[in-house]
Amino acid sequence: MAQQVTGELGSPSATTTIDGKQLPAPDPKFGGVIEEDALKSKAWWAPRIVPPKKAPNILLIMTDDSGFGVPSTFGGVIPTPTMDRIAKTGLRYNNIHSTALCSPTRAALITGRNHHSAGFGVISEQSTGFPGYNSIIPRDKATIGRILKENGYATSWFGKDHNTPAFAASQAGPFDQWPTGMGFEYFYGFVGGDANQWQPNLFRNTTQIYPFEGKPEWNLITGMADDAIDYLNRINQIDPSKPFFLYYVPGATHAPHHPTKEWVEKIQAMHLFDDGWNKLRERIFENQKRLGVIPKDTQLEPWPTKVLKNWDDLTPEEKKLFIKQAEIFAAYEAYTDHEIGRVIQAVEDMGKLDDTLIIYINGDNGTSAEGGPLGTPNEVAFFNGVNQMPVDVQMKWYDVWGTEQTYNHMSAGWSWAFDTPFTWFKQNASKLGGVRQCMAVSWPGHIKDQGGLREQFMHIIDVMPTLLELTGIPAPEYVDGIKQAPIEGTSFAYTFDEKNAKAPSRHKTQYFEMFGQWALYHDGWLLSTQVNRAPWEAFGAANPDPLNNQVLELYDLNKDFSQSQNLADKHPEKVEEMKKMFIEEAKKHQVFPLDASVAARIVAPRPNITAGRTEFVYTCPMVGLPQGDSPMLLNSSYTITADITVPEGGAEGMILTSGGRFAGYGFYLLKGKPVFLWNLIDLKRVKWEGPEALTAGKHTLEFDFKYDGLGIGTLAYNNMSGLGRSGTGTLKVDGKAVQTITLPHTLPMILQWDESFDIGSDTLTGVNDADYLPPFPLTAKLDKLTIKVDRPKLTEEDVKKLENAEAIAVDGSPIHHLQSGPQ
């Protein structure tokens, strides 16, 4: 495209487009005149860079963990009037695909490259030291935010950032992999996979903020909508001519499901789930056929009774709990759609809706089943191996489900229904229930076929090239002097033309892979591996040969919309041909080495700022250090020593804490007495306590823990047998042991991910509500805090033991036998 210039070049008001081959654009040659004195010289200003004329504003929206059958726009029973509005004035898409997991889909969306190509074969918390899995977006794959920013857009990111490596998320930086380092000039949201919506680990750009303090009704879903509206109005008032690119990605409907009371009451009044999940699935299926978003001949597979019970086989107590779980999820979805509507309304109120392209993608993967068959009041429990908490235990949280007292997830029975007409869930890359999303797109004045349906095959990597085509901005050849890798997606802008409503898809071939399950799409055919692991089965032994140790299935999606008719036996030559194609794609896009492990990758070693260190010393208060960058005490022996000075009259407050209400530990003074407490996934709290309040003056407090397990190592990280074992803790005051307790089991995997490592006070939630409320500042003087970690060293004999041991099973999971119920 030819350069577009406005105004007189050299004047302060001049603007220009750029060819975009090199970003940032090179400084233009000075066009004025310089003599020995200013009176004989001529000033000259470089023109301001702007996008091409008629380049639209862009509002790119994507929700979280939401399957094809969730929104009302595509046949779901949950009201999503905002998505309905976009679809009515624009187009509906029923054939766009994700990667089956959060971080990977998001990396693919913002780079236009496949998730392994972008370093995100898995979520950042599971990254491993291979190019396709290290959770580092390479410099040769600049994001859509960076490209649009350098071409004159105001770029922003609101909500979930799951593309900053978990080992680079602290205030020590580096910040090049944060949104502001990837081309988004403004960021308001949380870093990581999920967040407590009532008290989130929230950032504005790279600074932690606490807008919820003193506001018990505050919720992030509304908070981020408010901030986005404020941002849009601010940009519009400062420079109305500057187009915006706003990337809007709320944490909903990822667990924890945290809607407001108002929305819970609205959904409960509708009685959407009283008939159970079998009937819900049938109702969604009929709605989908009636709306025409699936073909009339689509087949619905039988309910998977080997995996999930039929509704009629449940007890009355199970039904009561599960209905509540679904109502909270539905309220969260409806609430989120409403708040998205407020942002869109703000664009309309400023008179810019006609110039705004809106892409609304439902879900970054299929509905999550990580709550397991029974659901859970605490998602952190799932990541620690407790995925079937008994219903009678869960009922103790029934009245507070979805409030700040829970980190809740629903039963997988609902998740299966919400992925109708497909089967399986998030994490399952070989089944459409894990990867088939739905999408609505509007662009007033440019899309004539209002309410039309588009059925061409697409993938999330197609969004970036579409945006570049519609803005008239080319993909750069160099960014920061680094030659850029080719964009791997295919623009779907051609589908906006009504003449192309039935045109063949231009995206012909696409691979899928997640946790060793894989598939290949090519011209309507889909080769896929048979599902060999439910998402809640994360702790079992992994498939040692995920490329070949598979049952392969073959589907003709041109005739079989729901992937229900396996044709592998009828076309063995096609199976072999497509497997070879998958291997070629896998080599091309950094998919190898395939790895079927799940939980094991969470504890794999990473290059975080604690790597290789065994001693940590702190001399002043500090809060907000994320879990991925703080000293890891799990599966290790450790000693925490606090040297403090108690003032006259005594002291109280937090010395050190990591985690929060749903899993963590705290070392604090309570009414002057030293306390060390382990919160074991909100099922049990074990407390060591000194017998008397500390006197004024200097004291040394020590908590010493001796771990009995073998630990974990690079050679054996795929075996979980050494994790979550027993250990003995001793609390000492001024060198004297005051209490010793042995824990039969310890946490094997994680603390609460969205909580931080805090010294001198406690941010967000506390580890024990019965003892204190945050921030609980330390009123003693902290002279020195020392943490020494002794991680078990694996001998050759230990490795042999691990290789011969069975992996942790659900029934023998580390926390399974803890005392039940909240304490």
UniProtKB/TrEMBL annotation:
GO molecular-function terms, A-Z: hydrolase activity; metal ion binding
Domain Sulfatase N-terminal: 56-473
Compositional bias annotation for Polar residues: 1-19
Name recorded for this polypeptide: Arylsulfatase
UniProt keyword list: Calcium, Hydrolase, Metal-binding
CDD domains in UniProt: PAS_like
Listed Pfam families: Sulfatase (PF00884)
Lineage of the organism: Bacteria, Pseudomonadati, Thermodesulfobacteriota, Syntrophobacteria, Syntrophobacterales
Similarity remark: Belongs to the sulfatase family.
InterPro entries: Alkaline_phosphatase_core_sf, Sulfatase, Sulfatase_CS, Sulfatase_N
Gene3D superfamilies named among the record's database cross-references: 3.30.1120.10, Alkaline Phosphatase, subunit A (3.40.720.10)
Positions of region (Disordered): 1-29
Superkingdom of the source species: Bacteria
